Structures
1.
Amino acid sequence: MSGSIAAYKAAFFVRLLRKEGAELQVVMTPSAAQFVSPLTFSVLSQRKALVEYVSEDGAGWNNHVALGLWAELMIVAPASAHTISGMATGRADNLLLATYLSARCPVMIAPAMDLDMYRHDATQSNLRVLRERGHLLLDAEYGELASGLIGEGRLAEPEKMLEAVLSYFNPEKPLRGKKVIVTAGPTIEAIDPVRYISNFSSGKMGFELARALKEKGAEVVLIKGPTALEAPPGLDRVIEVGSALEMFGAAKEVFSDADIFIAAAAVADFRPEKVEKKKIKKDGSKAVIELEENPDIIASLAKEKRENQWLAGFALESHDAVENAKEKIRKKGLDFIILNSLEDEGAGFQGDSNKITIIDKENNLTKFELKPKREVAADIVQYLIKYIHA
Ligand code: CTP
């Protein structure tokens, strides 16, 4: 950090970075050290803040070459007009500038100064040089400045600087910090010890969704019914279940601290009322199995939904697809539904491709082309990201 009253804001920034688990080495120019004590930064960063080439006792020196090679990212915040000019022209008359010249890592620069200094041609042309050198500039913000003047020149807020750092390290992880539950596959409903009722769901759509969500940084819990296919690797938790009741139990257990619930499972709507303890023998007469309804998992969870929790379901319809899907959103209390219509060729839950339409609770329709399920999953996740950030 260089000499600016905004150095005090850098203290908050250092705290935020530490909270994220960053390892920090604070390097200050002598003039920054006049604004805020190096001791403050030594304590906050848990590492001695460095100011001079030569250590205070005169016996050692602060190795700018080692510092420059150690860092994965160098952030100059606040960057004063003087330091910006030193960086642009390659001066090395303090530890910060020498470290900059030695650094091989990317550099982020957050300027802070009075408005006339900031908009001066000299400063602007120095900033242009730094931008063209490939450095990331966090533009100064508009507002009241220490001089009492109002204009551009305020150091970017610490939260904004943190966001820039996080997205630098995780450029494609917009679901970072979000916990998502996905149900997938069929459920099986026992008739007797050797037989069950089930359906043809392969689980593929749900697995591809889990994979796509993970790729975007989400914490993914997969609740899966029995399938021949294996769940994708690298998920945070995979819960294997058999029946709809087991799937319901597992979902209830993890729902309260989830942000998003996506029901891709083909849950059996009915289960045999009575599971025979012994194998049913044929005796030449008609066999009758009485069925009772399974609980609707997603509809039950939707009733407990709190603010900032989202639920999405699937609908497989053979006729009046859009109307039936809209009715399902309402009946089940969903945020949006992913519709597969059997009227569309290639849609369905067995093949490798799918053609979907997403309908939200305001009845907006988004149609997609017939695609491989992996791409369909990416479309759904992209839609979800937009939906929850809208
Ligand atoms: N679903 C669920 N629990 C159930 C049944 C379905 O959570 N017991 C979820 C599915 O995972 C899917 C959505 O609800 O996301 C739609 O399921 P679907 O079977 O199409 O709807 P049903 O409620 O069974 O309605 P119907 O059979 O009348 O079409």
Note: The first helix runs from residue 7 to 19.
2.
Amino acid sequence: MTTATINEQVVRDVVQEVLSQLRGAGAAGATAAPAVSAPPIGASSPITARPTSVPAAAAAGTPSQAASGRWGIFADVNEAVAAAKVAQGWLVEQTIATRAQVVQIIRDVVRSRIQELGQMELDETKIGRLDHKFDKLELIVSHVSGTEFLSSEAYSGDAGLTVVEHAPYGVLGVITPVTHVIPTMCCNALQMIAAGNSMVINPHPGGIQTAVYITRLWNQAIHEKLGVDNLICVMEKPTLETADAIFTHPDIAMLCVTGGAGVANAAMSSKKKAVVAGPGNPPVVVDETADIDRAAVKIIQGAAYDNNLLCVAEKQVFAVSSIFDQLMDAMSRHGGYRLTREQMDALGKTCFISKNGSNGGHLILNREVVGKDPEALGAMIGVSVPPGTQMLYGETGADHVLVQHEQMTTVIPLVRCGNVDEAIALAKTSEHGFGHTCIMHSMNVANLTKMGREMNTSLFFKNGATNEGEGFISYSIATPTGEGPTSPLTFTRVRRCIMIGHLRII
Ligand code: NAD
């Protein structure tokens, strides 16, 4: 046994030990995961009423008043919100430097345990890839913005001086997905706390043990250095009822939900201000001017990342006929395994089933396929896939179930199109107005411009993969509500302080 395998085994044993202790403590309580259906929401969805007033910041409490020793873990929403309110009252009294310390502690806890946490999340959720779990955590702790992102603006002129500042909301209600348990919680916590808020999280039941474990670690570490508990609170038995209690609690000032159509629609119809990071079905268009080999490499790189769990990841390809066969061949050279049309049909029927388990009626995603690697997915339809394969792929029609629905697994359909206009039109239809993400491989600026305008998505990747690019990162891409990738400023109220006649010193 090599050192690497010994270490891997040790990490696995520790994770199993922690998971079984959590189970014994009754922290699991996992209920059946809500199914992802794919009714279109997004740009066409109505944006519901915003609150007319925001609850005042919590009365400042001392850390000792704050249900200390709970480490943010609660069964009752009222208790969680009360504890988070006291913690936020403390935070708002602190300096920005102290907030930055909290942010650093959150980063350090994750950075010091990347192997353990990545392994734990994979063991519990059983979806995705271990190497990419590590990569995601590394990216989050190094590239999600904290207090340095906060800013103030000033207007100085004949009328005086106006200062614009970005204030906290208070206690935020947060919903997180099973696809990225710690990445979403960590990203939300860094940004929300940098902005001066505390949070109550209703995680997906499918990752609850991991969510409870990281919450305990964060609160214990913050308490050890700063004496405050419960800045990050989590429901230990999350259900739709606890989600609803958070949505309607008078002391929750704002919501941030990350998930599929069901939760996105629920948050959009809530009376509270909501930042909604909803579902996507990102199409890729490849035209005749693209570097075809590069397009194949990048499509596979983005789609295979964490076995296609990401909402931004490439889900279906529309390629013009003059380069279609070339692209199909290139996919094989760069990690793809080609399926026949019949095999793509069989996989479509495996991936999407009706609520009663057959293939008719309203289709939902079969949770058994989500985040599975290509070998496991192939085995489900009796195909033996070579080890090391990154993605399964094959030609389908534009109305194929794998084109029209968000599969979140390691198969990608390619559709042959007459020309670029047809490809863009079909891509737009397949995105269903989510307004989330699209991708194009082209060297023709007119075509790229047309794609960007037609698709009208929050993210538009050109000539690259969806897991790369410049700019700050976020694991909540707020699509129907329009904020795009969240930042600390997303979780602040704009306040304006206006002095008339004085303080302009020039
Ligand atoms: P999911 O919709 O099944 O669950 C997401 C969360 O919402 C979970 O905590 C779940 O318990 C909760 N939930 C579901 N229905 C609810 C309802 N009616 N009321 C209250 N809470 C409810 O999704 P998932 O499988 O965990 O995550 C995958 C989905 O999330 C995909 O559709 C993906 O595109 C989307 N996603 C979007 C982003 C983004 O940034 N836009 C990021 C990650 C995932």
Note: The chain has a mean pLDDT of 90.
